[in-house]
């Protein structure tokens, strides 16, 4: 790993964003707009407070997944990746450079969504606001890492878009948002146990309920972080210097 | 392996998909020369170049570049490579692209200015790549290959779509680089560029028809221009 190449890559991606203001606006505001919509759909503070923590995990996760998978696919399908692979660029430098750039965008996205939820939308939480931001941010990073990984299996942007229902929707359905995970049939419960989003939602729910930092909370966060890291490393394996 | 050869290819076979793209190609590219790789579209020029740069999975054969196997990590800042499709970021400006690749190569920042002047893109520095013309775009991609101090430049059709004046300027630049000791492998499908090279590799259907100097090719085939020489080689091959 070479830090200066990694940071140059992050700076390059952020510069690309700077030239595309509409995408930045969409990324930063989209989860907040969806949460605002949801608040008025529920039309009650209590119902919103119950569902919002899970959605603070789901929306940034889904949006970062799709943005990242398309952007990296673009890198893979244009000749720029091939050029970078002929240069002294480490695969992990490239992927962590991507993760850092998208992580920064994800953090802004989560800060805006949490800020609006707590002030305007009447979300009440028992635990630390900062821990809430950290978990939601970590979750957006997980979406980024999975998006990087998934882009390896798409040949076209059209395919990449359709990976979103494949990678994201099952996790959303099984994360405990629609039905408690314990009440699912054994097969579904097992599936929900191997999906990282479930742990992010558990952690967020725990933080909104109480201010205690329990062993379970720490374990859940560690699982989310480990899954993100694993997806990044797997993503590096799918990058090839030599291609057919 | 001789130290005077920049690139040495022996018995190279490459398949892409089900198609055998290179069948037993062998050639030597001397250091400090301009070697033209010519042949019709689809004959395997790009595949040969990818093999030299080390991004092509090869079936068999050996490719030695600057004394080490192609694709060795140590070669990564000694080779400049410009692909046929411009490999630059469309949503960055010319200078932003060059600054990024400069950082990846750990080349001095002053290189950005130098290569912009070398390819004649002065005045376009802050223009977004997506708004450039085709010729400007391919020159931006060429500029990236010139960053740092590459000892070998592999350029895939660098002069396509350029006006004659610019083309002439680029060939003068290639000549200067070779005089400084840089080895250049340049592909083209237009024969009139062949005369500007010291050595020519003529390819057709994944087979190397000739590896010689332009003058030797002309005298060997008894023709007066390289287009005719190429045709006569193809016919001789088919008759055999």
UniProtKB/TrEMBL annotation, chain A:
GO MF, one example: ABC-type transporter activity
Membrane topology classification: Multi-pass membrane protein
Domain annotation ABC transmembrane type-2: ranges: 14-242
Transmembrane segments: 24-42, 54-73, 94-123, 129-153, 160-179, 217-239
GO CC annotations on file: ATP-binding cassette (ABC) transporter complex
GO BP terms: response to antibiotic
Cellular localisation: Cell membrane
Keywords tagged on the record: Antibiotic resistance, Cell membrane, Membrane, Transmembrane, Transmembrane helix, Transport
Keyword Transmembrane applies: yes
Keyword Transmembrane: yes
Database matches in PROSITE patterns: ABC_TM2
Recorded family membership: Belongs to the ABC-2 integral membrane protein family.
Protein's UniProt name: Transport permease protein
Native source species: Lentzea waywayandensis
Automatic annotation (TrEMBL), chain B:
Keyword entries, A-Z: ATP-binding, Nucleotide-binding
GO molecular function: ATP binding; ATP hydrolysis activity
PROSITE patterns xrefs: ABC_TRANSPORTER_2
InterPro entries, per the entry: AAA+_ATPase, ABC_transporter-like_ATP-bd, P-loop_NTPase
Top-rank taxon, per record: Bacteria
Domain ABC transporter: 7-230
Transmembrane segments: none
CDD domains, alphabetized: ABC_DR_subfamily_A (cd03230)
This protein's name: ABC-2 type transport system ATP-binding protein
């Amino acid at each position: 790993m070479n830090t200066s190449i990694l940071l140059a890559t992050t700076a390059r991606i952020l510069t690309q964003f700077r030239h595309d203001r509409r995408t930045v606006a969409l990324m930063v505001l989209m989860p907040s707009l969806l949460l605002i919509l949801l608040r008025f759909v529920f039309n009650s503070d209590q119902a919103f407070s119950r569902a919002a923590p899970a959605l603070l995990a789901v929306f940034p996760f889904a949006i970062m997944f799709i943005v990242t998978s398309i952007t990296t696919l673009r890198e893979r399908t244009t000749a720029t990746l091939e050029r970078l692979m002929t240069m002294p660029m480490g695969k992990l430098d490239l992927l962590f450079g991507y993760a850092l750039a998208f992580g920064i965008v994800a953090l802004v996205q989560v800060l805006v969504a949490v800020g609006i939820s707590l002030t305007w939308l009447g979300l009440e939480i028992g635990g630390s606001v900062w821990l809430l931001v950290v978990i939601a941010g970590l979750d957006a990073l997980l979406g980024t890492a999975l998006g990087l990984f998934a882009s390896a299996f798409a040949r076209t942007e059209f395919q990449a878009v359709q990976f979103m229902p494949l990678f994201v929707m099952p996790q959303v359905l099984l994360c405990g948002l629609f039905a408690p995970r314990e009440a699912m049939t054994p097969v579904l419960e097992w599936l929900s146990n191997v999906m990282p989003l479930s742990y992010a939602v558990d952690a967020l729910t725990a933080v909104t309920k109480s201010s205690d930092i329990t062993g379970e909370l720490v374990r859940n966060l560690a699982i989310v972080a480990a899954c993100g890291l694993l997806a990044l490393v797997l993503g590096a394996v799918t990058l090839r210097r030599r291609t057919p | 392996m001789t130290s005077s050869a920049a690139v040495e290819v022996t018995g190279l076979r490459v398949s892409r998909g089900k198609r055998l793209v290179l069948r037993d190609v062998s050639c030597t590219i001397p250091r400090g020369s301009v070697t033209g790789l010519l042949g019709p579209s689809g004959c395997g020029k790009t595949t040969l170049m990818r093999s030299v740069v080390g991004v092509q999975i090869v079936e068999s054969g050996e490719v030695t570049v600057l004394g080490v196997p192609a694709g060795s990590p140590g070669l990564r800042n000694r080779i400049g490579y410009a692909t046929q499709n411009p490999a630059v970021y469309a949503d960055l400006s010319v200078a932003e692209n060059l600054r990024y690749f400069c950082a990846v190569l750990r080349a001095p920042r002053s290189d950005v200015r130098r290569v912009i002047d070398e390819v004649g893109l002065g005045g376009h520095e802050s223009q977004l790549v997506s708004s450039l013309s085709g010729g400007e775009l391919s020159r931006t991609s060429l500029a990236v290959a010139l960053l740092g101090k590459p000892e070998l430049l592999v350029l895939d059709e660098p002069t396509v779509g350029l006006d004659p004046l610019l083309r002439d300027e680029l060939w003068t630049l290639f000549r200067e680089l070779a005089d400084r000791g840089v080895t250049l492998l340049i592909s083209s499908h237009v024969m009139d560029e062949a005369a500007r090279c010291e050595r020519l590799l003529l390819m057709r259907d994944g087979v190397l028809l000739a590896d010689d100097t332009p003058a030797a090719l002309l005298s060997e085939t008894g023709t007066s221009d390289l287009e005719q020489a190429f045709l006569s080689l193809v016919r001789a091959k088919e008759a055999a």
